[in-house]
Write a structure and sequence with these properties.
A hairpin with a 2-residue loop joins strand 10 (438-446) and strand 11 (449-457). The chain has a domain at 3-259: Amidase signature (AS) enzymes (Alpha-Beta Complex). The protein has helices spanning 8-16, 22-40, 48-61, 104-111, 154-161, 178-184, 218-228, 274-289, 305-320, 339-350, 353-366, 372-393, 418-423, 429-433, 462-474, and strands at 43-46, 73-77, 115-120, 167-172, 187-190, 210-215, 260-264, 293-297, 398-402, 438-446, 449-457. By secondary structure, it is of the alpha/beta class. Helix 9 crosses helix 11. It has an eleven-stranded mixed sheet with strand order 1-3-2-4-6-5-10-11-9-7-8, sandwiched between helices. It is built from 15 helices and eleven strands. Bound molecules: asparagine. Residues 126-129, 152, 172-176, 313, 425 line the site of asparagine (ASN).
Length: 489
């Protein structure tokens, strides 16, 4: 089954009309995974036995016409808890963790009878931009197996790009959906903070984390986002606003006539690869030719975003990760003398280097005497970043630029240099700091590798962002390009 040649609506219709059974589709998905995942290494856990049993039961019952994802196998990032299915966050400390409940997003999909294909690799606790920080395996970019898939939702992006699954759930704290989407030439969307419940997402930076989808098309992404959005009593930061049917608004009449696009000069400035800039500039020209108005603007605090993000997200992480102590959660060290030893050894053995680095940075930033200089300062910068966007959105509908400053780089090339790694987030973290919706869509190739165009919307205006993305997609062919797995570029 080639998922690039179909889409969610088509598969759903075929299932309802019994042109294909859920069992056939599930088997075809695992055939894809088995043919490719030896090379891609996206999956940490396969859910094959359960998936086939669920598919068979659904075939008995029949697929309901009002359940869009019924009988369709989808991938799930492994920091989203799934009842009775191993959930590791790609950490050794959760090596044997089988949650006793489902995340709200999973509950919502289960209510629609989706099929969980399995759990996908990530940087440990979503900390990283290349998926090299997984304690288990390095996932490979589907376009060039010697390159990283981006991160932290690298398993999700690579599995979709490789055509293993139709779509996969990811999470985004500072770019973790958009950067891998860009590197793998797929569509990735981080909703407005509060659009989707965070209940059951293994918390990293609670004021920044959001769940979203990686897909091969804008419409699939929009349709799937509506399914997981909405208020949840378990997450009081989730919004009570109505959830539009994002997908229903994407049709032949969708256009960008008069759309006011702001392009921050900082997003096409120093540090951004020239070839990436060229692809983005060509995309903007294309928007102009479709009737959009493109203006250069400034988001002057962009340059402080990375520093402020790493202080805020690490501070929140240092608190959130306290629960992994070998007692409440986590593999318990065995050779121990006393309680303190349990904590120290379990955490020392269970966490990888990057996670330890962030816990230390966060604990330091929050400690008495340093709080004002670091955490408070970072919070002030956060307010300025939010204001920058508010100013631009007074007379623009969307902001556009690259999702990442470069294309996917070689595995191993940045891993020893955390600061270079962090700088790859320069164009994505401001969006999380401001709580805005943002997405990356395929905009072309540079040196044979995909480049993602980032589209940023006003708070809770995913609709305008999706319409802009859809219009671009429908009038270009970039999203049709498929990686040739194994054939190196
Ligand atoms: N989690 C994310 O959204 C990715 C970001 N690169 C980080 O390491 O924090």
């Amino acid at each position: 089954m080639n998922f690039y040649e179909t889409d969610l609506t088509q598969l759903h219709d075929d299932l309802v009309n019994k042109k294909i059974s859920a069992t056939e589709l599930t088997k075809a998905t695992y055939d894809n995974i088995k043919a490719k995942d030896d090379q891609i290494e996206a999956f940490l856990t396969l859910n094959e036995e359960n998936a086939l049993a669920e598919a068979a039961a659904l075939d008995e019952k029949g697929i309901a016409a009002d359940q869009l994802v019924a009988g369709i196998p989808l991938g799930v990032k492994d920091n989203i808890v799934t009842k009775d299915i191993r959930t590791t966050a790609a950490s050794k400390i959760l090596d044997n963790f089988k949650p006793i409940y489902d995340a709200t997003v999973i509950e919502k999909l289960k209510a629609q009878n989706f099929i969980n294909a399995g759990k996908l690799n990530l940087d440990e606790f979503a900390m990283g931009g290349s998926t090299e920080n997984s304690a288990y395996q390095v996932t490979h970019n589907a376009w060039d197996l010697t390159r990283v898939p981006g991160g932290s939702s690298g398993g999700s992006a690579a599995s979709v790009a490789a055509g293993e699954v139709l779509a996969a759930l990811g999470t985004d704290t500072g770019g973790s959906i958009r950067l891998p989407a860009s590197y793998n030439g797929v569509v990735g969307m981080k909703p407005t903070y509060g659009r989707v419940s965070r209940w059951g997402i293994i918390a990293f930076g609670s004021s920044l984390d959001q769940v979203g989808w990686l897909t091969t098309s804008v419409k699939d992404n929009a349709l799937l986002t509506s399914l997981i959005s909405g208020h949840d009593d378990h997450d009081l930061t989730s919004s009570t606003r109505d959830v539009p049917d994002f997908g229903a608004q994407l049709n032949d009449d969708t256009n960008v006539n008069g759309l006011r696009i702001a392009v921050p000069k900082e997003y096409l400035g120093e540090g951004v690869d020239e070839k990436v800039k060229e692809v983005i500039k060509a995309a903007l020209k294309h928007y102009e030719s479709l009737g959009a108005i493109v203006d250069e603007v400034s988001l002057p605090h962009t340059q402080y975003g990375v520093a402020a993000y790493y202080i805020i997200s690490s501070s929140e992480a240092s608190s959130n990760l306290q629960r992994f102590d070998g007692i409440r959660y986590g593999v318990r060290a065995t050779d121990v003398q006393d309680l303190e030893d349990v904590y120290v050894k379990s955490r020392s053995e269970g966490f990888g280097d990057e996670v330890k680095r962030r816990i230390m940075l966060g604990t330091f930033s929050l400690s008495a005497g340093f709080y004002d200089a670091y955490f408070n300062k970072a919070s002030q910068i956060r307010a300025l970043i939010r204001q920058d966007f508010e100013n631009v959105f007074k007379d623009h509908d969307v902001v556009m630029g690259p999702a990442g400053p470069t294309v996917a780089y070689k595995i191993g090339s940045n891993i020893a240099d955390p600061k270079t790694m962090y700088m790859n987030d320069v164009l994505t973290v401001p969006v999380n700091m401001a709580g805005l919706p943002g997405m990356s869509i395929p905009a072309g190739l540079a040196d044979g590798m995909p480049v993602g165009l980032q589209i940023i919307g006003k708070p809770f205006d995913e609709e305008t962002m999706y319409k802009a993305a859809y219009t671009f997609e429908q009038s270009t062919d970039f999203h049709k390009a498929q990686p040739n797995i194994g054939g190196q570029n």
